[in-house]
Amino acid sequence: MSVRGVLVGCVPIIVFALVWECVARMQVVPGYLFPSFSTVIVTLYGLLMSGVLLDNLASSLFRVLAGLLLGSVAGIMMGTAMGCRAVIDQSFHPILSLLYPIPAIGWAPLLMIWIGIGESLPIMLIFLCSFFPVLYSTITGIKGVDPDVINAARTLGASDLLIPVTIILPLALPDIFTGLRLGAGMAWRVVIAVEMVAMISTESTGIGALLIRSESLLRVDVIIACLIVLSVMCLTFERVFQYIETRMTDKWR
Length: 253
Description:
Blueprint: H1 3-25, H2 37-50, H3 52-84, H4 86-99, H5 108-115, H6 120-143, H7 147-155, H8 163-197, H9 207-216, H10 220-249
Helix pairs in contact: 2-10, 3-4, 3-6, 3-8, 3-9, 5-6, 6-8, 8-9, 8-10, 9-10
Subcellular location: Cell membrane
Main location: membrane
Keywords: Cell membrane, Membrane, Transmembrane, Transmembrane helix, Transport
């Protein structure tokens, strides 16, 4: 993105922050219910310096990365098998179609009984929420590969074992990365929800746990600071996946 593009993108954010600051300083709503932008930034700085924010962010980040990695690998492997082999697609499509509409957070009560409340719970739920977007994006990408390209590869001597790895998957990468970006965004939503609902003890860590504790103390400034961090993390994941996609797919364009 060009410097001009960055500056243009920052203008609405700056305007929003200024309007927020002005409205808050009018004291139409008590300050503890609607803190000013500057107050939130000071709170955010204090949370960073004290280590509270970093400790909780590290816990959430670990859960997101672990669940997203497991779900993405499983989704790509299963999607590749279903996209390349019609018999596998026909066998698993019905059951996956039944499971896909169930929200990941809907599995929480059942998993809380089966595996308990601990690190495995958010990781498992993130696995579920990231698996399906990656799975279906992989299938879509593979089925969208031009059959003439595959036939040409076979004509040139490529084996059926190497074609999925050397031809099909590279050409399906744009769709796969679309699924990865969707899965990453859903992963952050799920981890916050699980930490708020199921991991609310005083010993629990995570951005969601910090949010729910701040709510009980009426610390609106801390809540907004956590939401800002959450937005930044989602945007960071989006940009990282875009960068990796560009680097990996340039030679195939």
